[in-house]
Amino acid sequence: MTIDWTHFTPVPALTGGALIGLAAVGLMLANGRILGASGLLGGLIPPRAGDWRWRTQAIAGLIVAPFLARLLFDAPSPAIAAGPATLIAGGLLVGFGTRLANGCTSGHGVCGLARLSPRSLAATLAFMAAGFAAVFVVRHGL
Amino acid sequence: MKRLAPFLVGLLFGLGLCLSGMTNPAKVLAFLDLAGAWDPSLAFVMLGAIAVAFVGFRVARARGRTVSGAPLDWPTAKAIDGSVIGGSLLFGVGWGLVGLCPGPAIADVGFLDGRAALFVAAMAAGMAIVAVWPAIRAGAPATAALEDG
Q1: How does pLDDT run across A97-132, given as a tens digit for each residue?
Q2: Interface residue of B4, B74, B90 to substitute, partner A, most A CBs within 10 Å
Q3: How many inter-chain contacts (A to B, CB under 8 Å) are there?
Q4: b/e string for B10-41 if b means 16 or more Cβ within 10 A?
Q5: Is B59 helix (H, G, I), strand (E, B) or coil?
Q6: What are B103-147's pLDDT values in tens digits?
Q7: Which of A8, A98, A129 faces B40 most closely, judged by CB atoms?
Q8: ipTM of the prediction greater than 0.95, yes or no
Q9: Distance of alpha carbon B85 from its chain centroid, rounded?
């Protein structure tokens, strides 16, 4: 293993992570809900009476964030390298998988681990392992 | 405040994703590429987020109520079954193919990135498949009651 020290950014990573944690605590204290991006969007498909407004608001906040981020600090536009076919296949897998598992990086990886949930630990180990394996196959072959 | 809170939470979440580098798939893939030039930054994102949430959730649990006095809706699902493992494995493959998980993918739409929008549309379609096919969720009711996030 070679560590890429030039791209390693521990301070913004820790600070950004802390903001994500604060957002999760904020949603629990304000609305009593677990912060999970896949659940926010998945809960709108289909929308349910009395449940869609907070989800739509949180998603709107997520989408507005890059505009504010660019005013506050250096927030480069994402450089998405994947082509259309990979984007569609990847999106389908992420959407299907996170709903089947009832959570993603935020719901299981952050909130679940912070609650010391064994179920979320299992989910996190599974998606991390699959992520490492997929990148290994794509970049280094079998 | 309760009315505006979800928007502010989404904003804070998105700022954290932008600052941490999670919105950049190249950085995410560099973290997932253990055999290449490995960028461990995203481990620090998880560390920072979990540390803050760990303490904050303890405070919330001790309070037992939201600021407006409503009950807290903690996840109740405990089963480590085929749905949670199989779903997470499929999610991980998609994450590794593109470098986007749901939160950063949605935030990247705010960078007015067409590829992110295509990914989010496909992601919503994948979610819709689960929504219209509740039987695949191993008998779990297709309601929000058991939701982890």
Answers
A1: 999 999 999 999 999 999 999 999 999 999 999 999
A2: B90
A3: 547
A4: bbbbbbbbbbbbbbbbebbbbbbbeebebbbb
A5: helix
A6: 999 999 999 999 999 999 999 999 999 999 866 555 555 444 444
A7: A8
A8: yes
A9: 16
